[in-house]
Design goal:
The chain is an alpha/beta fold. It folds into 2 domains: 3-206, 3-Layer(aba) Sandwich (Rossmann fold), CATH 3.40.50.300; 217-367, P-loop containing nucleotide triphosphate hydrolases (Rossmann fold), CATH 3.40.50.300. Helices cover 38% and strands 15% of the residues. β3, α5 and β4 form a beta-alpha-beta unit. α14 (323-330) packs across α15 (351-361). The structure holds adenosine monophosphate.
Length: 401
């Protein structure tokens, strides 16, 4: 199966070539022709399966082909996290580079002014997280009355994160006649009900979750404090027989900080992230592969596409916001039948992320309690939308789960 067989137009095929995609993933092969036929879609798929392109490519094509006299928001992509929203918007930029379909992204936690400026231009596609969208809708900045396509991404995570009522409030404001693409990794009853109420005779597409591939990786977790993470990393690098390791951080700044502290501790390392030039990244990767440096520190975006054959250890200095990203990160070790180990650090702020990862992985992971930098449990964790004792760190009397 090739992209040429899916009914995609030349400017999109060219963009895919630029991206270096040679073949569609299973969800893309199944979904793209159906979405181009304007069918509703129910996609059971997680991040990492190529689902972003599965909806972005046909949507870009439909908007490009169906010209309208005035600019309006014609497609809404609703996604639970800021990280996903940014990724989707970046994907639209990449896949739509040879088309003239405007798009923008809105999410909370930052000033709304640049977002409202962008909304005044009536982008064809709006990518949004639910809270900020509702807020800007209430302030009158978002007109969805001309919406043609609605995409609900990661519906089950919306439920887990306590956003489902916001999602329903947004849905209540959408025009009744529209094409709807509904994505969810799992189908709990409430999500099934929502899907039933939204979708008309949908095509169902299901792809296998990537988590099944990580069973052979020896995973462990250390509860610690945010401020102690790099100290713990240095301690482990000194104590354990670790020849080399890939260390993930959430931010570029975090990656640079880890490298600075490792170097102070005389542990050779380099960072690869979006602020480094292609040359710098390539050099760092080559030095790592050749054993000239022991540790490569990477952000998720920079680590995409890097291929290291013999990687015995992966560290998650920060847990990823998206649980599937955990699977992708640790899946870089234990390749080609070799054994692999992943070591993750979880601080007070990341208990919910850990809970989501455990749910996705579906098995218990070793909690290492005997280490010099345990989490300070005298500080009460901040209240969370869906607290669960399962995600809390062990208290004083540390016991193996
Ligand atoms: P997603 O599941 O949409 O988050 O995509 C996961 C990753 O796969 C992203 O880094 C995409 O850039 C990449 N990707 C998506 N589709 C393809 C494809 N057909 N070939 C190669 N890489 C892809």
């Amino acid at each position: 199966m090739s992209f040429q067989n899916l009914g995609l137009i030349e400017p999109i095929l060219k963009a895919l070539e630029t991206e270096g995609y040679s073949n569609p993933t299973p969800i893309q092969a199944q979904a793209i022709p159906q979405v181009l036929e304007r069918r509703d879609l129910l996609g059971c798929a997680q991040t990492g399966t190529g689902k972003t392109a599965a909806f972005s490519l046909p949507v870009l094509q439909l908007l490009h082909e169906r010209k309208v006299p005035h600019r309006h928001i014609r497609t809404l992509v609703l996604t639970p996290t800021r990280e996903l929203a940014i990724q989707i918007n970046d994907s639209l930029t990449a896949y739509g580079r040879n088309l003239h379909v405007g798009h923008t992204v809105i999410f909370g936690g930052v000033s709304q002014n640049p977002q409202t400026d962008a909304l005044r231009k009536n982008p064809g596609i709006l990518v949004a997280t639910p809270g900020r969208l509702l807020d800007l809708m209430q302030q009158g900045y978002v007109d969805l009355s001309h919406l043609e396509i609605f995409i609900l991404d990661e519906a089950d995570r919306m439920l887990d994160m306590g956003f489902i009522n916001d999602v329903k409030r947004v849905i209540a404001k959408l025009p009744p006649r529209k094409q709807t693409l509904f994505f969810s990794a799992t189908m709990p009853p409430e999500i099934q009900k929502l899907a039933d109420s939204l979708l008309h005779n949908p095509v169902k597409v299901e792809v296998t979750p990537p988590s099944s591939t990580v069973d052979k990786i020896d995973q462990s977790l250390y509860y610690t404090n945010r401020a102690d993470k790099v100290k713990l990393l240095i301690h482990l690098l000194k104590e354990l027989p670790i020849k080399n390791a890939l260390v993930f951080t959430r931010t570029k700044h975090g990656a640079d900080k880890v490298v600075r502290m490792l170097q102070k501790a005389s542990i050779s390392s380099s960072a690869i992230h979006g602020n480094k030039s292609q040359n710098q990244r390539q050099n760092a990767l080559n030095n790592f592969k050749e054993g000239k440096i022991r540790i490569l520190v990477a952000t998720d975006i920079a680590a995409r596409g890097i291929d290291i054959d013999e990687l015995p250890y992966v560290f998650n200095c920060d847990l990823p916001e998206v649980p599937e990203t955990y699977v992708h990160r640790i899946g870089r070790t234990g390749r080609a039948g070799l054994s692999g180990k992943s070591i993750s650090f979880c601080d007070q702020e990341q208990l919910d992320e850990w809970k989501a990862i455990r749910k996705l992985i579906g098995k218990d992971i070793d909690i290492v309690q005997d280490h010099p930098f345990p989490m300070d449990t005298t500080v009460t964790p901040a209240p969370r939308p869906s607290p669960s004792n399962q995600s809390r760190p062990p208290r004083r009397d540390f016991r193996r789960r």
